[in-house]
Design brief:
By secondary structure, the chain is α/β, with parallel strands linked by helices. The protein contains 7 helices and 13 strands. The strands form 3 sheets. Strands 1, 4, 5, 6, 8, 9, 10, 11 and 12 form a 9-stranded mixed β-sheet that branches. It has a two-stranded antiparallel sheet with strand order 2-3. The longest helix has 13 residues, at about 220-235. The protein is globular, with a radius of gyration of 17 Å. It starts with a strand and ends in a 6-residue tail after the last helix.
Length: about 240
């Protein structure tokens, strides 16, 4: 199984930290965020990795190279616009990735056991999304489920019907690329991967979910970055 990591974004909410480097190279526990993600994949036998880049892409490519220093094989895909949306970023993998693959946001940190559990759980399904219960569902993409299947995914709902937050860690097959082609631009003028996922669901794809309490954190703001670094210093409690 291959992996596709989305690392093209600017990281606007992490300014001024991202003026000099992409957010994916911000260090947590003396390693870049992206290195933690690559290590988690490698620990689970995922050695073929594609990284989608745009903003300050040269810095990412210079640091990771072909991946041999980290025991993996890395290829880089270029997203034409860093503001094109997650759907546009994922679409860069069309024709290069066959069968099921792991898709990850490049600004999340998580316990590597999550990957192991997802690979084990997806066998009888077309795809899987990792999720966890959160106290304020209005701040996340939220999964609505029926038994083992996902029936709806809603981005930051005003009136959430669930508290299962999308963790930005997925396994899909190639059908996700066709769904992206059918996806309309959002109000922000972007291709949202959550809209593409809903298209898959509407067309009958069997998508399941992994609800986990393992460590996970989306590093979307300076406050998040400070909290996760404190966690790595103390290892006393989860920061989220």
């Amino acid at each position: 199984m291959k992996a596709l990591i989305l690392a093209a974004g600017i990281g606007t909410r992490l300014r001024s930290l991202t003026l000099e480097k992409p957010k994916h190279l911000l260090e947590v526990g003396e390693k870049p965020i992206l290195e933690h993600i690559i290590n988690s994949l490698s620990e689970n036998g995922i050695k073929d990795i594609f990284i989608v880049v745009n903003y300050k892409k040269e810095m990412i490519i210079d640091y990771f190279g072909d991946g041999s220093r980290f025991g993996v094989r890395i290829n880089y895909l270029f997203q034409e616009s860093s503001r094109g949306g997650t759907g546009e970023a994922v679409r860069t993998g069309r024709g290069k990735i066959k069968g099921k693959f792991i898709l990850l946001n490049g600004d999340v940190l998580f316990d590597s056991v999550i990957i192991k559990k997802m690979i084990e759980s997806v066998k009888d399904y077309d795809g899987i999304i990792a999720c966890k219960e959160v106290s304020d569902p209005r701040s996340y993409g939220i999964l609505e489920t029926d038994k083992k299947r996902i029936v709806r995914i809603v981005e930051k709902p005003d009136n959430p019907k669930s508290n299962l937050a999308n963790m930005g860690i997925y396994i899909f097959d190639e059908s996700i690329f066709d769904a992206i082609d059918k996806t309309e631009l959002s109000d922000r003028g972007e291709l949202e991967i959550t809209d593409s996922i809903q298209i898959l669901i509407n067309e009958g794809a069997k998508l399941t979910f992994l609800k986990t309490d393992e460590f996970w954190m989306d590093i979307g703001s300076i406050e998040d970055y400070k909290r996760v670094n404190e966690f790595y210093k103390t290892r006393k409690q989860y920061p989220c």
